[in-house]
Amino acid sequence: MSNRRNFLKISMVAAAAMAGNRVFASPGKGDKLPDNIIYTENNSGRFAKKVGSHLPVVTVDGNKVTVKTEHGMSEAHYIVRHTLVSENGEVLGERTFHFSDPEAVSVFEITGDHSKLYATSFCNKHDMWINEVVL
Fold first, then answer.
1. Does domain 2-134 have CATH number 2.40.110.10?
2. Is 62 left (phi over 0), alpha (psi -120 to 50) or beta?
3. Are 83 and 131 in contact (CB under 8 A)?
């Protein structure tokens, strides 16, 4: 379980870097991650028809950030996790879902000054999706 958590945390930082159009080197490898690991609205790859149900929708109200993925939740296919990452790669919040949850919605209270946030949504079948929010 620890290895999976480490992979997800590294993926969040990678997602933030890739969404910001920066080259991200894999830790210890110096290689750029393949384009088909993390998906965005403009880089949906093989999942072009999945953008509407997999890209996290972010709303900001003061220091409250809500992340919602318009995706069904069933044992066979569901959103596993949301993560909120700052521009510098700091994980500001994370929530793991169970397929029995009624919907994939997370609410995070953030502190400090941030110019950008990255919200991720991880689907058990369609990988990781990220949405950049400029504050």
1. no
2. left
3. no
pLDDT tens sequence across 50-96: 999 999 999 999 999 999 999 999 999 999 999 999 999 999 999 99
Six-digit token string for 38:
């993390």
For the entire predicted model, the pTM comes to 0.77
Dist CA 54 CA 12 (whole Å): 16
End-to-end CA distance of the chain: 34
Distance, CA of 118 to chain centre = 7
121, 126, 128: which is closest to 67 by C-alpha? Answer: 121
Q: What is the DSSP letter of 49?
A: G
Q: Parse the chain into domains and list their residue ranges.
A: 2-134
Closest CA to 130 of 111, 115, 116: 116
